[in-house]
Amino acid sequence: MLYKDIKVSHLMNSNDELQKLVKDFEAELWTLNFKKSVGSLDQSHKIRAIRRDIARIKTELNAREKGAK
User: Residue 35 to residues 6, 9, 31, 58, 60: CA-CA distances in angstroms?
Assistant: First the structure.
């Protein structure tokens, strides 16, 4: 799932669901980085997109945390 799939509905999920999304993206990022180091990665643009998706979700989580205080 790349940024195109992260819509407002995903950002309206609970914090637990967003944290699960972050873990899923981090696992996928790890896999892509491993493939990159081995030399079998064909779509290197996905690494950048997933890193940005993780940042977007974490930004939303931090905004919620600061808003709750």
Answer: 24, 31, 6, 25, 29
Per the CB < 8 A criterion, the answer to whether 22 and 68 are in contact is: no
Query: Which residue's structure tokens are 């990159």?
Result: 36
* pLDDT one-digit tens code per residue, 15-69: 999 999 999 999 999 999 999 999 999 999 999 999 999 999 999 999 999 987 6
- Reading the block at residue 18, the tokens are 């967003």
Which pTM was predicted? 0.81
Instruction: Match domain 5-68 to its CATH number in 1.25.40, 3.30.70, 1.10.10, 1.10.287.
Output: 1.10.287
